[in-house]
Amino acid sequence: MNTLSRQDCALLNAVQRDFPLDSRPFATIAGRLGMTEEAVLARLQQLEAGGAISRFGAVFRNGVAGASTLAAMAVPGERLDEVAAQVNGVPGVNHNYLREHDYNLWFVVTAADPQELALRLQAIRDATGLELLDLPMEQAYHIDLGFPL
Amino acid sequence: MSGPDLTVLVQRALQEGLPLVARPYAALAHQLGSSEEQVVAAIEELQARDLVKRFGIILKHRELGYRANAMVVWDIPDQQVDAVGATLGEEPCVTLSYRRPRRPPGWNYNLFCMIHGTSRDRVLVQLAALVQRHRLSFPHQVLFSNRCYKQRGAQYV
Predict the structure, then answer these.
(1) Given CB 3.0 to 4.6 Å as the disulfide criterion, which of A66, B17, B86, B135 pairs with A55?
(2) Residue B3 to residue B33: CA distance in whole angstroms
């Protein structure tokens, strides 16, 4: 379990966006927080080892850097693990969640372009034998600033 | 003769994740047979082309104790959905606010927002406060997630 101190929260709030492009970015962040570069790196590596960090990288804009959609399926309870694995086996699937609803499996599918996306959705229908809701984003009302802690 | 250009390789690396080391751009450059300056220039180019929504460390909410994750779906009249979506998007507890198409007859919800909290009860309290403060008397449902089968970054290239 990753128990967060106040300093952890300050650190994680500082690293989630606008990451410095300096040669030693963790030193820059450490300077802002009154920490040392070694301490920042050590704590982040520890959180990563504890599974709290998905990755150090970028979130790309939907649609501009490719095509994506949110899909939902109503999966019979006894088939959930099987269908989730079948869905995860299709390239481009991420954020696959079980939710409490008749539509109980929700996941994002991404691809390089709309044609490839349509093929991937069809591959999911074929692999599972189930229909799906295709719910592409039409408008975003929120700027992703990360997750305030 | 040549493979994908450096910008594509850098985008791919940013999707996969950079190492948590003192000089991450130099480390990536070494891996790609490029220079630190060229890698940084490629990231700047991706940002200048407005492809990057956020660059930094991406967290797993669940592992940090934010175990309750609710997707709230709303059926908002078409002429009001933009205003309500923007209002919800400004709320600190709301991490996403998107308009999506209805799929009648089975699915009539056109606005999706995500609320993360340390517990189910806290999320429901936050939602009730939003509904009251903004007088959101629209049909809606709360879909809590109780299991994550996969969380990883999108792979576009």
Answers:
(1) B17
(2) 13
Query: In a 3-state reduction of DSSP, which class is residue B78?
Result: coil
CA A72 to each of CA A55, A89, A118, A142, B54: distance values in angstroms, whole numbers, following the listed order: 26, 16, 15, 22, 26
Both tokens of B115, joined, read 């609320």
Question: How many angstroms separate the Cα of B151 from the Cα of each of A92, A96, B77, B121?
Answer: 12, 7, 32, 24
Contacts of B124 in chain A (CB under 8 A): none
A138 and B11 within 8 Å at the Cβ level: the answer is no
**Confidence (pTM):** 0.72
Residue A4 DSSP one-character state: P
DSSP, collapsed to helix, strand or coil, labels residue B45 as helix
Helices (H), B91-145: 120-133
Q: Do B22 and A24 touch (CB under 8 A)?
A: yes
Q: How far is CA B89 from CA A87, A143, B83, B111, in A?
A: 30, 8, 10, 11
From residue A95, alpha-carbon distances to A92, B36, B103, B118, B121 in Å are 10, 32, 21, 19, 23
What mean pLDDT do residues B16-28 have? 97
Burial group, residue A89, by CB count within 10 angstroms (0-12, 13-18, 19+):
exposed
Chain A positions in Cβ-Cβ contact with residue B149 (cut-off 8 Å): 84-85, 87-88, 96-98, 105, 107
CB A16 within 8 A of CB B56: yes
Tens digit of each residue's pLDDT (9 = 90 or more) over B59-85: 988 788 888 889 999 999 999 999 999
- Dump the DSSP string for B94-109: EEEEEE---BTTTB--
Q: How far apart are CA B67 and CA A72, in angstroms?
A: 21
CB A71 within 8 A of CB A106: yes
**A132 pLDDT exceeds 50?**
yes
Separation of alpha carbons A120 and A132, rounded Å: 12
Interface test with A, best of B12, B64, B124 (most A CBs within 10 A): B64
